Amino acid sequence: MPIGLESWTLARPEIFLAAVTALLLLYGVLRGETSAAFVSVATTVALLVTAVLIFTPYREGTAFSSLFIVDRLTATMKVLMLIGAAITIPMSRAYFERVKVWRFEYPIVVSLAALGMMLMISANDLMSLYVGLELQSLSLYVIAAFQRDSIRSTEAGIKYFVLGSVASGMLLFGASLIYGFCGGTAFVQISRALLEGKAGEIGVIVGLVFVVAGLAFKIAAVPFHMWTPDVYEGSPTPVTAFFAVAPKIAALSLTISVLMGPFKPLFPQWQQIIVVVSVLSMALGAFAALRQPNIKRLMAYSSIGNVGYILLGVAAGSEKGIQSVVFYLGIYLVMTLGSFAVILLMKRRDMMVEQVNDLAGLGRTHPMLAFAMMVFMFSLAGIPPLAGFWAKLYVFMAAIEAKLFWPAVLGVLASVVASYYYLRIVKVMYFDEPAEALDASAFGVNRAIAFVAAVIVAAFSLAPQPLSLVAAAAAKGLFP
Amino acid sequence: MLLQALAFYLFAFVTIAAGAMVVASRNPVYSVLFLILAFFNAAALFLLIGAEFVAMILVIVYVGAVAVLFLFVVMMLDIKVAELREGFLKYAPIGSLIGIVLLAEILLALGVFGGGSPTIATLNQAGAHVGSVENTRAIGRVLYTQYFFLFQSAGVVLLVAMIGAIVLTLRRRPGVRRQRVAEQLYRPKDQAIAVVKVPTRGGVS
């Protein structure tokens, strides 16, 4: 099959991003260390332009011998992911300058990771799925260890690399079984084979389990979450912010397109797996962080819990479910980026601090910042009328409509337990004896991001329609 | 046909012998060299069954890159063979167990315990129908057309690996003399040459 011009037009955002990244890499290499500021701004702009390119004009279809697919869901997920990636780049500058690793390669690698995530999201074949996933993972391993003189950062990088390779191995093993039993790697071939009676084959089910295990590792769902707290704590904080947002969106989108696409005929089988993984993630996210003193680890457990709620929407397997997932991811993006913007502002005597207790008395010393953090914590805890409440509500409603009563009840209970540690942060900020005040900082990027995010989260109830319309349109793509 | 059989037994024998020597030889450098010998013979075996692409890849990737890398590591690290052998008896039972399991699996696949053994015909049926085209040409036909997208993406993965390796390991040390051709060529004579009066038996300081 020849590659027509159609392929190139469909993949134009990816091609644009790859080309700009390559040019910026050349520029950075030629100009040396001084180019970091320009490269980071240019990469941010390039990521945002890529997001715009996806919808101007929007086209859908498959490309490159149907290795690559663009539809409403993938386009929406790509835009969410690109926004997340683009915002974390300017957030990182102050931190990296302080630890003296402000180098032009960071935005370049982030942009290549974003490219990998776009390929992942658009995968329409087990092979393109794997190549995209590896491109993403390899970039993430590099930036986890980016602060290479810090032993914790290096440890995080190695740990992530080793465990990530194991997960990739599981995924490949599952993919090979599926290829063997279905006679093809293309999603279309797999789904055709399953509909023609291969669905009962034990080999296909074992393969599916391994593929789901590999994907669960990438989204850090229990029982494949072990790496998350260590990697989140060890990585440089801006990298943690990036990890908490963009890869989750990409991997969840991939999970949806694998499960709802070729494996739709195996819905009863994978629903059980996803429900168990989801309930376990919600429970672990709620209980493990109860006495967690380190705020980065706390955010890691919080992200595990959030993935649990999102997977509940996936497990519903209905249009409502997918809609709630997109909706949740949009709100999660804003809440998480806002919280990390505040965490990145936590420094005392010019040293970064990351204990929950370091926030003591923030309500008196930095009232605006404390208020923003309070909004994020209330929202993460799911207290109405903040955005996080609506996100959880939609997911639970979708689960109940799909007759997943017990998982939904357990989810609500887990969210009650989890609200303890979110509210503890608020209590520390407002009611504890003030610790030595954090450094006052000039009005910078992080402050701006924190305030904009806080306003969005707080005022979300006034205008929830845009996001829910986007989510509805995205979900419609999967259910024609 | 006889020649082919002879060649097969020759290469197979050398492969197994070299494999045994990898384990048995006292010097780790010899081990790696025997490993390279084993790779070459395995490549020849692949050639005999008509898989010339795999044979070439085996030589290029395993001999050219992996084995040389091993050699570097072995030469740079001070490995004491005696220490490595200390646990030999302790691990012998589990090792032989794994060996037996693998042997049983091979026999099972060959149909020794009943069940039909796979023949070339059934294998051909399951695999891709390349027909009379040799496999390098068959791969070449799809690599830049059907799988062009994957080929390009794999290139980007390699780019990330390259950037990552440089970012994480390259250090700019001060005081390193770097070659700057233009500066060196434009150096005026009075900076480059000094006329020194050397006293007899004094030497140049």
Structure description:
The complex is a heterodimer of chains A (480) and B (205). Chain A has helices at residues 5-10, 12-31, 36-55, 72-98, 105-121, 126-144, 151-182, 187-195, 202-218, 227-234, 237-260, 267-287, 295-316, 319-344, 362-365, 367-381, 387-401, 405-431, 445-458, 465-476; strands at residues 61-63, 68-70, 347-348, 351-352. Chain A is mostly helical. Chain A has a domain at 263-480. In chain A, strand 3 and strand 4 form a beta hairpin. In chain A, helix 13 (295-316) packs antiparallel against helix 18 and helix 16 runs antiparallel to helix 18 (405-431). The radius of gyration of chain A is 21 Å and the shape is globular. Chain A starts with a helix and ends with a helix. Chain B is an all-alpha fold and 205 residues long. Chain B has three domains: 1-82, NADH-ubiquinone/plastoquinone oxidoreductase chain 6, subunit NuoJ (Four Helix Bundle (Hemerythrin (Met), subunit A), Up-down Bundle), CATH 1.20.120; 87-127, no CATH class; 133-173. Chain B is built from ten helices and no strands. Chain B has helices at residues 2-24, 28-48, 52-76, 81-84, 88-110, 120-126, 135-143, 148-169, 181-185, 189-192. In chain B, helix 1 (2-24) runs antiparallel to helix 2 (28-48) and helix 2 (28-48) runs antiparallel to helix 3 (52-76). The termini of chain B are far apart.
